[in-house]
Amino acid sequence: MPLLQLEHVSKKFGQVVVADDINFELEEGEAVGIVGPNGAGKTSLFGIISGDVRLYGGQIHFVGQALERMHPSVRCRSGIGRTYQVPRPFENMTVFENTLVGSQQGAVLRGRKSHEAAFSALERTGLSSLANRAAGSLTLMQRKRLELARALATQPRLLLLDEIAGGLTDLEVTELTGIIRSINAEGVTILWIEHVVRALLSTVDRLLCLASGALVADGEPRAVLASEAVRRVYLGDRILNEAMDS
Amino acid sequence: MTWLNIVIQGALVGGFYALFACGLSLMFGVMKVINLAHGDVAVVAGYTAVFLAPKFGVSPLWSFVVVVPVFALLGYVVQRTLIQKSIDRDPFTTLLVTFGLSVLIENLLLEVYTANGQSINIGSLIGSSFQLSSTIYISYVSLVVLGVAVAVLGALQIFLGHTKTGRLIRAVSDDREAAQLSGANYRHIFGIAAGIAFATVALAGIAYGMTTEFAPSSGVTNLIYAFEAVVVGGIGSLWGTLVGGIAIGIAQQLGEHINPEYQVLAGNLLFLVVLAVRPNGLFGKKTAPS
């Protein structure tokens, strides 16, 4: 049974189509990247899976369970963790308290176990020395790490990463991809939207490309990036034809 | 000595304002809801203590033991049904809905209990006081109300800072969608926060009924003072609400000392000055300009 299964998923905001009959499956333990130009519907797709955005048509199954009518908090508790493109820590709480919310609510752990899980998420993301710092005072890199730590503390089976490498230096991207690879190596399935293609290529073994809400490519990362469909999406038909002619 | 008396009596009144206001502050801080029916809930608690509690064999003095938990439950239900539905629409709808609730409660109370003043009978306790100096008398009941206010605010502070549910309330107050995607059901947490707000304002309503007469319209008057206490103290700060309540109380006492007609005016003036000089209140956090 696939871990996640999307069948004919569609969504419109008014007349704007953000998901146009999307079909794909994720197997447990996979690391899959999503690329696509701005406005392709990538973040909306994450919203549809995590429950932020209500589905318009189609079906989503997670471990065989239908997600359409499931509350976002229940989706999280059943194993779907998510980070935001712009980190959204609980600013008035400490770094540790942020992950504690994840371990107590998402992973439904109690007492000492919840504290251990929260601290372990901080250790894995290199934030343990900042545990008592107010989340509102963190730098961008630290916020991105905290975003990842809070999602990890919910003990997800599927982790949705939304442009977590955006805005970071090369060194920071390398550090972060190392952490993500180790999370995937432990069996957590990764679905990762990213514009920093270098980061994706070092981590994922499959790549999806979205354009105008539709899935235009799905396969081995380098083959997908080299495909005409993807080049057309990024460069447009005219530029592509000119390039082919010259 | 007169000045000391003004400060002491102002602080005693301010304790009541803070008790009245902490639920208002909590609901605004967590749900961004200005509950215009907050004062009317207090008045309903007063009427419940006077008329309904005795029917179940509970004396008015001890009515809070029953009324406070019942109002906590009522707060949860009202939040999950009426107020949540309006939050899901937009902030103006919450204002309209709570305003409508306020008008409805006041008119129902007028219809059932008339406009006559009522009070909670606490026997000889009402007039008893002790003498601090030749000119300063302190009412036992007012002192107890101030003590209860400090205890409630302290307990709330500990609850929010050190318990799992308190932490969740702070999390949904920061970002309810992010909290939801960390596994928290924010609607349930909103319900708990409203339950606490209703419980504390019910306690304030009973305290009010023990110290003075109340009528269906008392809720609106006290809501204004409570609102001023929250703004003067700084939205989101519970200790700020206590300080704000005491500051309003002292300003009112000072105004009354100058001329009895200036009592309310002095409190309102302090509110305006704080808004002009420190818009975030005495203890409020500065917000970045958008």
Question: Brief description of this entry?
Answer:
The complex is a heterodimer of chains A (246) and B (290). Chain A contains 10 helices and 10 strands. Chain A is of the alpha/beta class and 246 residues long.
Topology:
The complex is a heterodimer of chains A (246) and B (290).
Chain A: E1 4-13, E2 16-26, E3 31-35, H1 42-50, E4 57-62, E5 65-66, H2 72-77, E6 80-82, H3 95-106, H4 111-124, H5 140-153, E7 158-162, H6 170-185, E8 189-193, H7 197-201, E9 206-211, E10 214-219, H8 221-226, H9 228-235, H10 237-245
Chain B: H1 2-31, H2 38-52, H3 64-87, H4 91-113, E1 129-131, E2 137-139, H5 140-162, H6 164-174, H7 176-180, H8 186-211, H9 218-233, H10 238-258, H11 263-277
Antiparallel strand pairs in B: 1-2
CATH architecture of chain B: Orthogonal Bundle
End-to-end gap of chain A? 48 Å
Give the strand line-up of the largest sheet of chain B: 1-2
Q: What is the CATH class name of chain B? A: Mainly Alpha
CATH architecture of the largest domain in chain A: 3-Layer(aba) Sandwich
Unreliable runs of chain B: none
Radius of gyration of chain A: 18 Å
Give the CA-CA distance, first to last residue of chain B: 48 Å
Give unreliable regions of chain A as ranges: none
CATH topology of the largest domain in chain A, which one? Answer: Rossmann fold
Strand content of chain B: under 5%
Tell me the series of helices and strands of chain B, N- to C-terminal.
HHHHEEHHHHHHH
- Look at the structure and give the CATH class of the largest domain in chain A: Alpha Beta
